[in-house]
Automatic annotation (TrEMBL):
EC number(s) recorded for this UniProt protein: 3.2.1.67
Compartment(s) where it occurs, according to its Swiss-Prot or TrEMBL record: Secreted
Protein name: galacturonan 1,4-alpha-galacturonidase
Keywords (A to Z) from UniProt: Carbohydrate metabolism, Cell wall biogenesis/degradation, Disulfide bond, Glycoprotein, Glycosidase, Hydrolase, Polysaccharide degradation, Secreted, Signal
EC class of the enzyme, as a word: hydrolase
Organism for this UniProt entry: Zasmidium cellare ATCC 36951
Catalytic reaction(s) noted: [(1->4)-alpha-D-galacturonosyl](n) + H2O = alpha-D-galacturonate + [(1->4)-alpha-D-galacturonosyl](n-1)
Coiled coil: none
Cellular component terms (Gene Ontology): extracellular region
Protein function: Specific in hydrolyzing the terminal glycosidic bond of polygalacturonic acid and oligogalacturonates.
SUPFAM superfamilies linked: Pectin lyase-like
Organism placement in taxonomy: Eukaryota, Fungi, Dikarya, Ascomycota, Pezizomycotina
Gene3D superfamilies noted in UniProt: Single-stranded right-handed beta-helix, Pectin lyase-like (2.160.20.10)
């Protein structure tokens, strides 16, 4: 006869695997077997939590959060492939020296009423987010190109918004907040609900090998932009961030650094439906915005609009935008009157396909109609901007549009080796308002072909 203690061990294991929490905990020997999933090192972990889904559409967020509490420090947490995990509740994870392996798919339910009423509130523009990761020395991996990650079931949100920008309650898929030394790699987001990534109040962040696809399939799009505000990445108060090796398809900015983002590197990005947008900036009068020290290389930006399903008209490959200098209304649609500066920005090897412009500056950004009367009032400064090897074609005849304000002209802009044609008639122009010291090109001239 087997000893009673043996039955106790077996019963405990059954409760762990099949009870309320399906987390299985292993110790270091099992965790080290996962090392081939990433070039990044594993933490010197003390345990390894493995979560399998309940199935049949039952919520898995509670057991995933339970696993992140059990393995919150010096651990590996694995959600294996090919499982689909139903996420019907918001998630907040605090991690320290943890490798989080989302090898399956987190499927966020299209329960619009829940998410509108219960998502975490975000400081910027009164936005919201469905999932927050806060931590230090963290790796988040999907395990391979176009494999594990998030399915935001974003079509429900696109159809509800019907082209309306910044609709209240539409949640960001994943926010990194108050974090340092974080790597997100080989991670996919399908049909994000809104912005894909938000990084706020963080440093030393890398997002590498990222696949994002937010594509409208509702024929009511009818040539309009139902994919509106499907961003790739937005940042706020971030230092030392790298975004590399991306494939993005959305309906707004591929990357959009916002106020107080410094030491940024963007490399090897293919962006369909949105370019690299600095801003919008200057929305808040009491909060100056600074974006300094940006290096961007090998960036391709394309516009793709279906006559049946619609899509985004892309303003520019590199696009700088600040609100007018007069504040009206309330965010997210209202604002203006803020100040700050964008400086020490370099783009090399920028390619555009059918965008409105290749490079543009717009210091007359507004949402309240009356603000159109104040286009020369912005005091946010754009200067020390450098572009080399810019090529491709634009949809109209203006390839480069530098529209600055009389209150604060743009200064020290350098554009060299620009070879840009028009889809309409071949030739393109450079237009300028209130630009001081443009090098490499002349204002209000036709680019040589």
């Amino acid at each position: 006869m087997l000893p009673f203690s043996w039955f106790v061990v077996c019963f405990t294991l059954l409760i762990t695997v099949y009870g309320h929490d399906r987390t299985v905990i292993h110790f270091p020997e099992a965790a080290t077997n996962q090392a081939n999933l990433s070039s990044a090192h594993l933490p010197s972990q003390s345990r390894h939590c493995i979560v399998t889904p309940y199935g049949w559409g039952r919520d898995d967020s509670s057991q995933i959060l339970a696993a992140t509490q059990k393995c919150a420090r010096n651990s590996v947490i694995t959600l294996p492939a090919p499982f689909v995990y139903t996420i019907s509740r918001r998630m907040y994870m605090k991690l320290d020296n943890v490798r989080l392996e989302i090898l399956g798919t987190l499927s966020f339910t299209p329960d619009l009423l829940y998410w509108i009423g219960n998502s975490f509130r975000v400081e910027f523009q009164n936005q919201s987010t469905a999932w927050i990761v806060e931590g230090h020395d963290v790796i988040v991996t999907g395990g391979g190109w176009r494999q594990g990650g998030i399915d935001g079931n974003g079509q429900a949100w696109m159809t509800r918004a019907a082209g309306h920008s910044n609709q209240f309650g539409r949640p960001i898929a994943l926010s990194l907040y108050n974090s340092s030394n974080v790597l997100v790699e080989d991670f996919s987001i399908w049909q994000p609900q809104f912005w894909s990534f938000m990084v706020q109040d963080s440093s030393n962040i890398e997002l590498r090998g990222i696949y994002i696809n937010g594509t409208n399939t509702d024929p009511n799009g009818n040539s309009s932009n139902y994919e509106t505000n499907i961003d790739g990445l937005d940042t706020l108060r971030v230092d030392n961030l790298t975004a590399a090796d991306w494939l993005f398809h959305g309906g707004d900015d591929c990357l959009a650094p916002k106020g107080n983002s410094t030491n940024l590197t963007f490399r090897n990005l293919t962006c369909v439906g949105g370019g690299v947008a600095f801003g919008s900036l200057g929305q808040y009068p009491d909060s100056p915005d600074y974006i300094h020290s940006v290096w961007a290389e090998n960036i391709t930006v394309a516009q793709a609009v279906s006559p049946i399903l619609g899509g985004a008209n892309v303003s520019g490959g590199a696009y700088f935008k600040s609100w007018v200098g007069v504040s009206e209304g309330e965010p997210p649609q209202g604002g203006g009157g803020g100040t700050g500066s964008v400086a020490n920005v370099t783009f090399t090897n920028l390619t555009v396909h059918n965008t409105t412009n290749a490079i543009s500056i717009n210091k007359c950004y507004f949402k309240v109609a009356d603000q159109a009367n104040y286009c020369d009032t912005s005091t946010l400064e754009f200067g020390d901007l450098h572009f080399e090897h810019v090529q491709g074609f634009v949809s109209g005849d203006v390839a480069i549009a530098l529209n600055c304000s009389a209150a604060m002209p743009c200064r020290d802009i350098e554009i060299r080796d620009a070879f840009l044609t028009s889809a309409k008639n071949g030739s393109t122009k450079v237009t300028c308002d209130n630009v001081v010291n443009l090098e490499g090109l002349r204002c209000n001239t036709t680019l040589s072909r």
